[in-house]
Write a structure and sequence with these properties.
Length: 206
């Protein structure tokens, strides 16, 4: 890679860092107290991160869970009150993005700029008012199912919220504009396309 290309990619990397700092400043929320049992944290693997979070949505939900065998009587019934608190991170996965720099035309082309998506869901579950019947008690499988159902519920709720994805898209435009401005300052031009779209030349008035 030539020195000019290395310099160019350094500029883009710096832009990502600046953008992340900007997001942290305006979207950081102080942590809320949670009822958490003791945990053992195990590092299973390390992976390169090619994702950018542009929005975080916070959810809180209280659900009733009830289950019984044959007849809904105390001996055969188990129930619990479940509180779910979750943070949904929305942003962009750049693993398939294609960036090409042409030194002859001083042009950087970004193809396949992704659409915003849910990158991760961090959730905690608290159990209250657990009642078990003599012949029907909670098992490890029950708790695992409650945990999985809670995460699926949060994911579905977030996916149906058009507002948060619209805001994430607006942040994408800000990021692209910032890249374009930085490249223009270095004498380069930026062209970008979203998924399944033709490449378009970006023009701004900086």
């Amino acid at each position: 890679m030539t020195k000019s290309l290395k310099y160019l990619f350094f500029i883009l990397l710096l832009g990502v860092v600046v953008f992340l700092v900007y997001q942290f400043r305006f979207y950081f929320q102080p942590p809320q107290p949670n009822i958490i049992s003791s945990k053992e944290v195990i590092l299973e693997r390390l992976e390169k991160v090619n994702k950018l979070i542009t929005l975080e949505a916070y959810y809180s939900e209280v659900k009733d869970y009830s289950d019984y065998y044959y007849y809904d009587i105390s001996l055969l019934r188990k129930k619990a009150l479940v509180r779910v608190k979750a943070k949904v991170s929305i942003g962009y996965d750049f693993k398939d993005i294609n960036m090409v720099a042409d030194e002859s035309t001083k042009t950087v082309t970004i193809k396949g700029f992704p659409d915003p998506e849910i990158l991760s869901i961090d959730h905690d579950i608290d159990y209250y008012d657990i009642t078990e019947g003599t012949f029907n008690s909670f098992t490890t499988s029950d708790y695992n199912k409650l945990n999985a159902d809670a995460k699926d519920f949060i994911r579905t709720t977030a996916e149906e919220n058009e507002t948060i994805f619209k805001e994430a898209s607006e942040k994408k435009d800000e990021l692209i504009d910032m890249f374009s401005w930085m490249l223009q300052a270095a004498g380069w031009e930026l062209k970008v396309s979203s998924n399944n779209q033709d490449v378009k030349k970006l023009e701004n008035s900086y």
